[in-house]
């Protein structure tokens, strides 16, 4: 695969306050969540991420990468479309388990945001820290 050089973003983040310059609109943040057999926790994960991002003044896309789950993880993610509004929901499905690193890479490749945040589906890193991650 040949990668094109990155294009210059039309947004700029002021690292001291985490706000967009008055270019066009708010910057978009891509949140990537690799998932493998997360049926028991994925609904709570989606709910907590949705609640956390609704409080923030950015555009968001949520990218869930199902890494070949053998349970109902994918169906639960697909059923969440209504609950993640106003964020865009992108769902990637692997045909088998390729591992967390491959799932993260696929999510990063699919991301269209100005910045990316990787979160584990088991909420090892709480979504309530998203605003602090953006501010960094």
Alpha-beta content class: alpha/beta
Range of strand content = 15-25%
H and E order: EEEHEHEHEH
Radius of gyration: 15 Å
Mean pLDDT: 84
How many individual helices? Answer: 4
Q: How many angstroms separate the termini? A: 31 Å
CATH homology-level superfamily: Spore Coat Polysaccharide Biosynthesis Protein SpsA, Chain A
**Low-confidence runs:** 1-23
Number of strands: 6
What's the structural domain tally?
1
Give the second-level CATH assignment, the architecture: Alpha-Beta Complex
CATH class: Alpha Beta
Which oligomeric form is depicted?
single chain
Describe this structure as you would to a colleague.
By secondary structure, the protein is of the alpha/beta class. The protein has one domain: Alpha-Beta Complex (Spore Coat Polysaccharide Biosynthesis Protein SpsA, Chain A). It is built from four helices and six strands; from the N terminus they run E-E-E-H-E-H-E-H-E-H. The strands form two sheets. Strands 5-4-3-6 form a four-stranded parallel sheet. A two-stranded antiparallel sheet has the order 1-2. Strand 4, helix 2 and strand 5 form a beta-alpha-beta unit. The termini are far apart. The N terminus is likely disordered.
State the gist of this model.
The protein is an alpha/beta fold. The chain is built from 4 helices and 6 strands; from the N terminus they run βββαβαβαβα.
